[in-house]
Amino acid sequence: MTHNIPINQIIETIKQRQPNLVSIQLPEGLKRKAQKLSETIEEKTNTHTLISGDPCYGACDIEDWELKKLGVDLIIHLGHSEIPLNTEIEVVYYDIQLETDLNNLITQVTKKLDKKVGLITTIQHHHLLQDIKQKLSENNIKTAIGHGDNAIAKPGQVLGCNFSATDIDVDQYLYIGTGNFHPTGVAYSTNKPVIILDPEKQEIREIKDTENFQKKRYATIAKAQKASTIGVILGTKTGQTRKKLAIQIKERLKKEEYKATVITMEEVTPNRLLQLGYDAYINTGCPRITYDDQKRYRKPILTPNEHEILVGDRDWSDLKFDEIRRK
Amino acid sequence: MTHNIPINQIIETIKQRQPNLVSIQLPEGLKRKAQKLSETIEEKTNTHTLISGDPCYGACDIEDWELKKLGVDLIIHLGHSEIPLNTEIEVVYYDIQLETDLNNLITQVTKKLDKKVGLITTIQHHHLLQDIKQKLSENNIKTAIGHGDNAIAKPGQVLGCNFSATDIDVDQYLYIGTGNFHPTGVAYSTNKPVIILDPEKQEIREIKDTENFQKKRYATIAKAQKASTIGVILGTKTGQTRKKLAIQIKERLKKEEYKATVITMEEVTPNRLLQLGYDAYINTGCPRITYDDQKRYRKPILTPNEHEILVGDRDWSDLKFDEIRRK
């Protein structure tokens, strides 16, 4: 697999906009490309660059205010598609396409698909979608591609916290992409089977066991009911800020006689929660922290929806996957 | 030991200033006081509070820009003394004094002091200094208390990165306080003996082995000389930003044919450096990261002074402890 960094386009953008100080932000898997990119920009333009060395987990995770104080006036953000954010500094997004050969995988996967299939993917692979749709059609497999909400740049694209492109009438999903992070979210969010076509590992696999996930969530809510003090986490990353919701939840908890506080956090880590010492937490920041990392934490962490079950405003049967959707 | 949180003063400040949204920041050792403090403020005033759940290692570590975007208009910062910073939001500092009985310790320590002694301490214990001076004088021990630079609020006070209060004509130092963090810095910075009077553990101990520290620093510089790519770390915490210096160092390294880039970082961690993949780093952020945590990192990290040795602008015998002083 090759990551094609559009270096000439980036140089062109910088020459046109003539910024004083440029920040380069890349997700973890591309961080090692930063040194060469920065070197090339400084050679070919007269601009100083700063590479962002902090983790970058998505288009929601834009370093903005903290760079404005340093005089940064342009952010080059690689590896994610644009989502609508109010940023202080101008951000130019470059998504990175991964080139791979899928012929073998498509032959394999057709045997596993028998009902109507929703095609989903991440930004790195969205360029493969039409070709896959065509080949599946040649094998008499019915497919549909959903259009997500305003956070979603391309048809069929999913984010870690936004599966609005799955809101279509299908029986199962075929996810084209690497890892289990996105398709796990789709399975938990939709309760439908998800088959993964992984171009990196060149393999087909399935997401199973969504029932077990739900059981764990119910157990976590039940555990949180025993709490006396509850910390409501307000994420401070640019695209993860749900301030109004965090304050509402705190006020609601107080009415139920919980001692509740809003806590700002840039990254949520087990150690930070341990230091604060609350009995339970409601996380309004990145939903995936709540779901994927629960076993790393000693105390129960709930989503906003689960908080509603906790205080009795939502029925236990109405458990929903927490997403950050944008109308 | 008792931490006296000046809760009435804090309530009074908030009533006077009538902010819309208050952030409460406490160092790690006091984080557990946050819940009660927030509860009291919200009960007694009509103000919403946000507790900062991110780590806070000093008065340099003010969350400011990232809170401005949330609408915070007053920061209550506990546990550190004020240092002069340009902040976007108004910050009110409350230092927290620790009450302890020192009579036994003073009797013990007089036996260990025979030359002229510089008295040093942290903000938590500065109120004890005059009494100790008096008692040592009664035992015929000569003492001096230095006045630090503009970052230093009280006579004899040291910070983790600023030992300007040690610039006095003495043979040894007596440090009143807990832990080894500050007195280790004093020993490395001054190369003079440091005796610790620890009110928490109720014990007297000494800092030894400063020679070994220097040897390790020389070894680290020698290792960094083999690097081909060097990352220059620019800390983004409010009081740790040395942007001009970071850019100067990058330019200097480039002249010596190193491939060098400036990297912004909020917190420096082994994993973040591993992701970036440089052969060595120069850290212009918190000096203590460079010194105290080296063994946690796989690659050599140097201070700005050590960088000068690396590129040949400073003599090897002229190794100095990196401090952030403020004229």
Automatic annotation (TrEMBL), chains A, B:
Keywords: 4Fe-4S, Iron, Iron-sulfur, Metal-binding, S-adenosyl-L-methionine, Transferase. InterPro entries: DPH1/DPH2, DPH1/DPH2_1, DPH1/DPH2_2, DPH1/DPH2_3, DPH1/DPH2_euk_archaea, Dph2_arc. Signal peptide: none annotated. GO terms for biological process: protein histidyl modification to diphthamide. It catalyses: L-histidyl-[translation elongation factor 2] + S-adenosyl-L-methionine = 2-[(3S)-amino-3-carboxypropyl]-L-histidyl-[translation elongation factor 2] + S-methyl-5'-thioadenosine + H(+). The keyword Iron-sulfur applies. Pathway: Protein modification; peptidyl-diphthamide biosynthesis. Its cofactor is [4Fe-4S] cluster. GO terms for molecular function: 2-(3-amino-3-carboxypropyl)histidine synthase activity; 4 iron, 4 sulfur cluster binding; metal ion binding. Its EC number is 2.5.1.108. Catalyzes the first step of diphthamide biosynthesis, i.e. the transfer of the 3-amino-3-carboxypropyl group from S-adenosyl-L-methionine (SAM) to the C2 position of the imidazole ring of the target histidine residue in translation elongation factor 2 (EF-2). Belongs to the DPH1/DPH2 family. This is 2-(3-amino-3-carboxypropyl)histidine synthase.
